[in-house]
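JOB MANIFEST
job_type = single_chain_structure
chain_count = 1
residues = 165
[input]
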Amino acid sequence: MSDRVIIVVEMGFAALWTAILFTAVPGWLPVPQGPFVETAMLAFLGPGLVLGVMVMAVGLHRFLGNDAPEGGGFHGPRAKINQRVLINSTEQTVLALAIWPAAALQLGERGPEILIAMSCSFVLARLLFWAGYHLRPALRAFGFAATFYPTMALGIWGAVRAMGA
């Protein structure tokens, strides 16, 4: 199967993942009781921990690799992939920080459960992105789309609710 076909199939599965995330998953997860801001902060614990593990992986290459004394660029595919994964995951986290809290606030009582579901989904999707990238670069498409699609869908949902629709 060609890489393009693999990517399109994975993107389709990510769209299905997004639909399931918003319809079925929130009812399965425990939602902390308390102020919305506490739930919003808790929702970013998972993404933050994933970024921390990625920073550690890149740091290990940086400080223990062959180029450590010179502070040079990364050599070898694993080190380069880990750096790319960290950069993309940082971008996805910033996008989530900019969208999730405000959008979830527009969803009323469903907001906290959606945030917790988004957090769990983000962690799993980022780990699949990372693993897929190492196995075969085309296999990163699902992890990317399963992170990006839910964030954008939540943003659109929140924006529509904010406009009173």
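[summary]
The chain is about 75% helix and 0% strand.
The helical segments are 3-23, 36-43, 45-64, 77-105, 110-135, 141-162.
exit_status = 0
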